[in-house]
Amino acid sequence: MIKIIMHGCNGKMGQVISEIVRNDEELTIVAGIDPYTMRENEYPVFNDINKCDIIADVIIDFATATAVDKLLAYAKERKIPVVLCTTGLSEEQLKTVEETSKEVAILKSANMSVGVNLLFKLVQEATKMLAKDYDIEIIDRHHNQKVDAPSGTALAFADKINEVLDNEYEYVYDRSAERKKRSKKEIGFSAVRGGSIVGDHDIIFAGLDEVIEFHHSAYSKAVFAKGAVTAAKFLAGKPAGRYDMSDVIKF
Ligand SMILES: NC(=O)c1ccc[n+]([C@@H]2O[C@H](COP(=O)([O-])OP(=O)(O)OC[C@H]3O[C@@H](n4cnc5c(N)ncnc54)[C@H](O)[C@@H]3O)[C@@H](O)[C@H]2O)c1
Ligand SMILES: O=C(O)C1=N[C@H](C(=O)O)CCC1
What we know:
Layout: E1 2-7, H1 12-22, E2 27-33, E3 45-46, E4 58-61, H2 68-78, E5 82-84, H3 91-100, E6 105-108, H4 114-130, E7 135-142, H5 152-164, E8 170-172, E9 186-193, E10 199-207, E11 210-218, H6 222-235, E12 241-243, H7 245-248
Parallel strand pairs: 1-2, 1-4, 2-3, 4-5, 5-6, 6-12, 7-9, 8-9
Antiparallel strand pairs: 7-10, 10-11
Helix pairs in contact: 1-6, 2-3, 4-5
EC number: 1.17.1.8
Domain Dihydrodipicolinate reductase C-terminal: 115-249
Subcellular location: Cytoplasm
């Protein structure tokens, strides 16, 4: 039985994962971490990760960016692998993820769905063929509770694209401050926030007289939760290092 600590257990994703794990004979949640403790949980919940002294094989994280520093320090000290799903991390936090992964296994992915991870590859192939003549723009659409923009997935798409382009493209988040035409070597971002949209992404290649678009829609949070649970099974017992969903899902 793989023992999980659920970081952010009383949030929307934490609750979907709790439901999936309840019906999985290979897994059990031995503790939850969340400052919001008003919910009934079938496992003990700690309002501060440093109060949690329960032994576990892996941590699944869906919380908030400000909670990630303590999480990484805790995981490093106790050598518990982390499936890190929270988005909106700062540059400094991303560096800490790299540093921490030298001492404990960390699988970080802005999107745990099979579809988006397949699209990462398809979009990279398209970039090789199209980038010379097409402008690249990314749109993400999410629910009105989301705090970070652009989405972690939108940024991950941009990073995948830029990897193919020798990291020569700059990211443009806001066109309102300057009156000038877009440059060739840029990736533009637009973020829509409203209602209960689970998560949509469009990667647009706009050329002369034609546009090619890649689109992904998540219809429920379960697509992310299932990916995170599969990742936790993969990561438990793994040596220190940086992992991502391409290690888990083989296309
Ligand atoms: N990687 C993916 O596939 C994926 C998918 C969905 C959401 N996300 C990301 O996961 C995060 C959570 O999403 P959500 O929709 O569940 O949000 P949510 O706001 O519903 O839940 C977050 C939970 O974290 C808790 N929290 C706050 N501070 C904490 C702390 N110090 N320690 C532990 N828990 C703390 C909150 O009380 C809340 O219950 C967001 O960053 C979101 O962008 C990632
Ligand atoms: O609901 C969210 O918040 C989501 N966040 C991730 C992101 O920022 O890309 C993945 C999709 C859902």
